[in-house]
Amino acid sequence: MAFAGWSIRLGERPMHNDEAVNAIKFGRLWTSGAYQYDPNEHHGPSLYYATLAVARLTGPPDFEHLTEARLRFVTLLFGVGLILLLPLVADGLGRNATLWAAGFTAVSPAVAFYSRYYIHEVLLVFFTFLALAAGWRYWRSGRIGWAMAAGAGLGLMHATKETFVITLVAAALALAANGAWSRWIDASASSAGIRRVNLKHLAAGLAVWLVIALGLFSSFFTNAAGPLDSIRSYLPWLQRAEGASPHIHPWNFYLHRLLFFHVAKGPAWSEALILALAIVGACAGFARKGLGDASAGFVRFLALYTFALTAAYTLIAYKTTWCLLSFWHGMILLAGVGAAVLVHSVRKRFLRLAIGLLLLGGTGHLAWQAWQANTTYAADPRNPYVYGHTSPDLLRLVSQVEALAQAHPQRSQMLVKVIAPDSDYWPLPWYLRNLKQTGWWEEAPADPYAPVMIVSSKLQAALDEKKTHVMVGYFQLRPQVFLELYVDLNLWREYLARNPPKPD
Questions:
Q1: Average pLDDT over residues 253-262
Q2: Which of 49, 104, 182, 503 has the most Cβ atoms closer than 10 angstroms to its Cβ?
């Protein structure tokens, strides 16, 4: 149910600000072939080049007719890819645990919701899983190809989002701690399958990482400053992490949304089942009990990595809801182990069946939440994963402006002035991209008048005082942000003549 919900109704939810920014940046790449990494905003280039690759394969229309659904289909592919990568770690998680992990990935409301979001996060999680899975395969086989595949995953992580360094630190700490545990505490652990890293293989993996990162950040060697900018970018991002941002939240921000979230007149949301099962799986890894065909060492590493990553994201003051995907995916993998352990540990067939049915019931509840999150509550603040999202009311404004353009002699060349402080007009640049004479101001220009003006209510512009224009609507952009629509009086009369009001 939830998995099917991933692929339908992709275009119904209005674009979030960040989605619209990414869409416009991809539009420049699609129409001009040019892209330049910005070290201050917008994250890495992998999303745009991935979209370009999909666009060339599927042959979409020109950018003006590109839809939200087509853009979100790109991130959807990477969300589905999280399931397709699971066979690479099946001998680490165990066969049954892998099946449970696949099911939890498909029905997790957080994963399903952000896989339908045209932002970088699900790509970061996918490339992280690729690096971890390829690293595990190398650890098992010692083949250089897997070392290079892990390097490719790391290079793509690097080219996706600056926060990849948090993942690297968590993985390094987990690897060191797991090695120490195996050596000094888990005396019963077998050394079978443990191999020393071949330095040539390590160099090959690092070379692949470097080539991919340099190629993408330099826009395939057309922007020499790009790779250096990828290092410079940490200065503004560190400032945000320290508190120079409106996205500062308490330590429990993510856990509140994941474990129990309820707003008046809305449903109760919870993915606590996944956390509970993840704890069971982690305990089994350390105790080496009930794991069946799973690798205790792999499960232990996954637990150490996931809880280190969770702690890091919890402690960092800068928080946006989609960032939780990085550690929550690890929880989902551990939850698969936990579910398999619970079923495997019970010998009586009746009790095993009862536990299986309870787990399936919990999985069904997660699927129902995922469906609700992506349909009824897709842009509703009562959804825990909706964060500063665009109100559906904005689509009413867009429809009104498009209808006014049809009533204007110049049609798509009609002049539109959008005036809002702090760029509080996004995602309008995406929605108004077909109107070629649209201008953008963060404060009122000397001459604010045009056939159509969209103005932030914060400015208290009152542009209808001269009686040459009329304010025809008041629209919500997102929570606590409103826009006023002013229209030239003659244009408004023409519009009404073409679209007479319907009788009550």
A1: 97
A2: 104
